[in-house]
Amino acid sequence: MTLVVTAFEWKQYDDSLIDLSGKNINTFEEMLEVPPTEQPPPPPPQIQQPQIIEVPDEEEIEEEIEVKFDVEVTEETKVQEIVIQAEAPKEETDEIFTIVEDPAEPIGGYPAFYKYVQDKMKYPAQARRMGIEGKVFVEFVINKDGSISDVRSVKGIGAGCDEEAVRVVESAPKWKAPKQRGKPVKQRMVLPITFRLG
Question: What is the percentage of the chain residues whose pLDDT exceeds 90?
Fold first, then answer.
């Protein structure tokens, strides 16, 4: 077996030298240097100045306005009063903002709110049995008075985790109301809640 492998791997070289003296080694032609051509920049466009024509302002225009009434006005003529009704004030729309000048924040700050969520959260038994972990994104609206409404799970992991996250956010205390131009408004928020088995 060794002989077969050696026979296939055996290499033999010819000891004769290659003669390069008769061949033209420099096959590259001389490169001509071409000086770079510079084109002068185009002349700036000519701006024509408008001609100012002076107009004499000495002519007086006389206007006579004639008013003709087709109705005779006497002492017995009654004139109806014209009542102009003021425009009804526009009702404020309950527009829900995502970004506001003075955003909503939990009373006591975010660390206190996160602690509240952590204390009130109960890991669902079904998710615990199935070993489900992940993030639930809960969307909610902070109203003009700071109360929380329209709580729903935007993206969840199932097995009761979505419902538990919604329950905890719905029961959360009031927030500091968001303001836009100094007036309280509604603001939409999204809160990620992580469920992790420990």
Answer: 2
